[in-house]
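Researcher: I'd like a structural prediction for the single chain below. Treat it as a standalone chain; there are no partners to consider.
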Amino acid sequence: MEETIKEILKLAVHAPSGHNSQPWRFVVKGDGKILIWNLPDKDKTLFNYRQRGSLIAHGAVLENVFIIASEKGYEANIRLFPEEQEPDLVAEVNFEKTIKKYPYQHLLPYILQRSTNRKPYKITPLKDKDRESLETVTRSLKDGKCEIALTQDRKSIHEAAVSLSMGDRLLFENFYIHQALFSNVNWTLRDEQKKREGLYVGTKELSLFERLIFKYLLSRWGVVHKLQRAGISTKAALKRQKLYEKCSAIGILTASSDSPVDFIEAGRVLQRFWLTATSLGLSFQPVSVGLLYLGQQIQRETPEKLTTNQLNFVREAYKQIIDTFNISQKIPVFSFRVGYSIAPTARSLKKAPTIMTCDDALRGKNSDLSSIGIVFIGPIIGLTPSLMNTFRPLENQGASIIGVDIFGDDYEKKSFWKILKLTMLPGSHSRRISFANSFLEHKVFDKIESAIRQLVHQGKTKIILGGMSGGFTFAARVIQSPPDHEIEKHTVRKWKNYVTGLFGVSPLIFYPEGIHRPYTHLESIPSHVKTLLFFGDQDTVIPPGTREHAEDKTRTCSNIQVKSLGREEFGKKSKPIKHQFFGGKDFVGPLKNPFWYPEVETYVVHELENFLWKL
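Model: Treating it as a single chain, here is the predicted structure.
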């Protein structure tokens, strides 16, 4: 039965999700059941208010499960949100042998054929038989919670296109929405084939010239911000409006309430509708779905990351959509256009599903970290062999780790006296500051770029940047948006989209007085990059207030987590946890690390292991 379940899930994940984020994980139980979990960190954009887009995606997966299980002779019995205390546990699915056939089993061949088509469609009405087939899709839901409002009236299509194009206007006016899109773009087919998640630029149906503009100009917020004076956002919205109008019909999927259960059910209806459209030879495109969720958020609260002007035109666009489709008593959950067109140029790929056993889930770790590649940038005094050895437990699980030494070349070749003068002899603090101001930053970024390239070429699909002390600053600056002036021109930036995680041990967020280097802006770390920071309670090397600054940022940056290490965590009899608590006992030659704390180091590695599993 377990193998059958895996076969079902392998096909079921070919379902739509925002930016192809695929926010799911599956746990297989021994009694023929599966648990389906939502992964909120997969899509934390402004357009995914209360994870509503992700819930739609889970509904689509569940509809696929119904269809595939029926073909294999099983009935899928589903309990939604079975544990109240676990809001991310979306569903429990139990499979039972049956001779009954699911009414929509005939849609099975179209699961792999379904795609988003962003080409212009013919401006012709739907054929009667096609329209009737589409309208029957929602009738199998007995409670009638979900409905589809479909309009072929050209005036209504125009009004809907104008309103929905406001989502595209936001893309070029709001920094956070802009970054959420462009941080998830796969620019080449090779990238798409390796990552198998995110938005593949080939599906955007851009000409070669448009693709170059999209990649080298419009992806850079600094350029877009300047182009706003020339009306780039309104021009982009107008272009999208004209595209949306080229269709046979525009539709809105609605639910009777905004409960998570209703969004799951709406996702099932969406997948059924989309597969039916595919079976009829129709083209289909989701249109500014996130605008609907943003409009719903504005009705409840004021999003902090929207300007007053943006709030106003989103509010007006949402109201116009409600009026155009006459759905004032319903909750719009998905918007789309449908029509007749040639096949899309490209399709987004899907990753194989993450399927765990209950034992794996209870242990809180994945059995394999082979998709993970770690670039670890050492502290200013050097990357010791014993420091790299601390990551051995992660390597044993399949992760690959490459160290980058700020200090220079091979650590073992460094002068014993040079290390001693930088660490323990009187005047070491001033020497470290002098050294920090003297080395060439671009050489460090050259090494980071080389390490990332090497890991990507090894087939690693998730790159994690980490650093100790000043090494963390270099790691963070690679992915900060907008970038500082020193790194903006460096080619390492082209690899930032591979980075999915960031961690720091005793991290320098801002430098001690006297060091003149760009520092870390935690709020500029992209929201999709999960970040974990470790601080010792008696760290006297990092500037005072660093840990408090990081903890304060966690209140506004949900992707950042801070671990404070001290007596509260390790007992009142524990010794002070100073700057070099992590990294083994050896420096170089006869020098030993007097602050090494093996118990804390073990704890940090264990927390890193859990951190990588969650990614």
